[in-house]
Amino acid sequence: MKKPLIGIVASFYVNRDNEPLSTQSVSRDYVRGIIKAGGMPMIIPVQEKSPMFDNYEEMMDGLLLTGGGDITPSVYGAEKHEKTGFTDLNKDVLEIELTRKMMEAGKPVFGICRGFQVINVALGGTMYQDILTSGKGWHNHAGEMAFRSRPLHSIKIDRDTRMFRVFGKEEIEVNSFHHQALDRIGEGLKITAVSDDGIPEALEHENGKVWGVEFHPENMFDAYPEFLGLFRSFVEDCER
User: Fold this and answer.
1) Residue 35 contacts by C-beta under 8 Å, 6 or more apart in sequence?
2) Are 53 and 36 in contact (CB under 8 A)?
3) Is 218 a catalytic residue?
4) pTM, to two decimals
5) Could you give the domains of the chain?
6) Higher confidence at residue 205 or residue 49?
7) SS (H, E, C) 43-104
8) What is the pLDDT of residues 8-54, one digit of tens each?
9) What is the C-alpha to C-alpha distance for residues 29 and 217, in angstroms, rounded to an integer?
């Protein structure tokens, strides 16, 4: 049986010492997650907006939006906060356009961390640009990067949601590597899990095909195999 083709947008890394040696890449564990779940990954390079975007949507059976840098604040109508980190407007525009095109075509989209945030922004949502200066009393959600599989906090999961169907529990422990959080929630989206201090940790769209998580399951499924269930759920959607 033909495996579903899953698009993954790369991240662009500038080599400031030798610019022609700048690279585009995707972290290993996203690719491993798609392959282990039965999909076939396709890496999409970051590029300026072009008619080529339509070709990607036509080729793909699903789109995985990965973690990475912050989203350019102007995309959601905000000024840049002093705590906002590296941004890449070309990547932002590409991922937002692809998300909308996949939705128009009725195809699945799954977002992880930054990708979770991209889904929200693509549907008109906004962001708190820094958790610790938000005034919300949230604690630090940026775990130690060297320990990617280590849980940092718990999340509470709503029943009758995709997250609950995957894990079969109302509470799980997850890792965490982000300093921003969702503010206004995008059109058609529902928050389906929150952290122990109230930060949105999972969402899904009313169409049932677009969803995401704020944590990093791709770094957890080797130590905690139940997290591969998120990739399997996504790939199964893409097979339909």
Assistant:
1) 41
2) no
3) yes
4) 0.96
5) 5-239 (3.40.50.880)
6) 205
7) EECCCCCCCHHHHHHHHCCEEEECCCCECCHHHHCCCCCCCCCCECHHHHHHHHHHHHHHHH
8) 999 998 899 999 999 999 999 999 999 999 999 999 999 888 777 78
9) 9
216 is catalytic: yes
Tell me if residue 238 is catalytic.
no
Q: In the block, which residue shows the tokens 């599989």?
A: 149
Q: Which is nearest to 218 in space by CA: 232, 238, 197?
A: 232
Distance CA 91, CA 114 (A): 11
**pLDDT > 90 in the chain, percent:** 92
35: three-class secondary structure by DSSP: helix
Among candidate residues 57, 204, 214, 218, the one labeled active-site is 218
Which is catalytic among the residues 57, 95, 113, 214? 113
Residue of 201, 205, 216, 238 with catalytic role: 216
CA neighbor of 156 nearest in space, from 183, 196, 191, 213: 196
3-class secondary structure, 210: strand
